[in-house]
Task: structure prediction
Amino acid sequence: MSREKDLTKNTLIITIGRVSTQFVAFLLLPLYTTVLSTEEYGTVDLIITLVQLIIPISSLMIDQGVFRYLLSSQTVEDKKKIITSASGAITIASVTTIIVYFVFNLFIKSDYKIWLLLILIVTSYSNLFLQIARGLKHTSDYALGSFICSASTILLNVICIVSLKMGATGMLVATFFGNFICCIFLLVKLGIAKYLSIALFSIDNVKEQLKYSVPLVPNQLSLWIMNSSDRLLVSFVLGTAANGVLAVSHKFPAIFMTFFNIFQLAWHETGAVHYFDEDRDQFFTEIIKKMFSIFSTLCMGIIVVLPIVFNLLVNSNYNEAYYSIPIYMVAFLFNIVIGLLGVVYVATKKTTEIAKSTLLAAVLNIIVNIILIRFIGLYAAAMSTFVGYFVTMVFRIIDTKKYIKITYDIKQSIIIAISICICCFIYYINNKTISLLFLPFFIGVAYYSNRKMINSLVFMVIDKIGRDRLKKYKKVIIAFIVSLVVIVISILGSYTYKKSIEKPQTIEGTYSNVSEVET
Result:
């Protein structure tokens, strides 16, 4: 199988597991923002944010070490030694975390503190088991495990906050049991028990894995600062209600990043394996150019569609989130370039190099945020993320030249930059009619810009399904697609017309609230 087909296959497998649940979770956003107050939603987001902060420290990112060393392991004995050693290290880390929790328990005043501990521990194990699946090249099991985790969490969320009316506690309960169910599934499906043997536990092997994974800790903490420190600062300065609004503004870029994270999982494996090929420079250049085009188009697509659907998806209490979203979208596009280049460090096992750029960006993120938050409120979080990711991207473009010669398409970058500016201009006009009129034009340009990749993907699916079978149902499929497009446009058009008659469309701006905070 060629490198491109291998990468596409792995990406598609992981996509099936991730996108379906993320799409359902996205559609449940109106439910969450209606049932939960901004304070409750902000509190849950804060707990999950703290888990993301602590877990790299408590686990020392050894799950990443397992993945990388399993990829290059040759014998069953080596695999057993790697998995046993990592599992033992995670268990020791979990016991240590419990001891530290009980020491500091008396100083923490929160009704949710026990859930912080439980989610932290179960997530450590679910992360480990998921990376074991990847390392053993059981990509389908990894995708299914991710799907089960997300699906269980979503289902339990609905039960806990709607049926049982448990509020914020319900979402935390759902998060814990979603990860727990994922652990049980992978434990059984992968037969992890057969890889565990006390006799094979090796301190030297743990040290070897930690030598790879520990340098990733400051990198992960820096990424946490980039993605989540804003929420702590906003909660402290503007309150948990403001953090609830910020959490909603993150939801849309998070959907965007979900698609890239799916690709990145496959890209890390393919890039690491083929990094030492003779034509690697051409291969990496081609993949990065294609992916930058695809994800730039997706970024612009979300920006174009959001004015049409925002009020359908988000309760009016969270309207302030609207204006920050394009800034986050572009910032996360920078992050995608960072991720594409990050595989170079993974392949060469130079994890210390990863931390350099992200640490610099994290410091800039905090400084910009602290300076601006009193003046522009929630916008400070978006702007600090934008600056941080931009600096990281520039650093990695320059730094990776030491290891690989990637040719960047300047013309492509200029065209994309101009296109994003046009899309943002239409977004901030915030007129559904204009956005609806612009949408077909954008779809046409998007297809033309990425037609080679889209066509090759379609032909691959056609070959898989069978051309004769598709020819038989060709008219039915075309009629279905056309009907679906017409129905969606009709519904959105009717909604727009109805709203324009009922009342003028307005969204409360962030600046007015910021001035109230300062007063």
Q: What stands out?
A: Residues 377 and 512 are 10 Å apart (CA to CA). The chain has a mean pLDDT of 78.
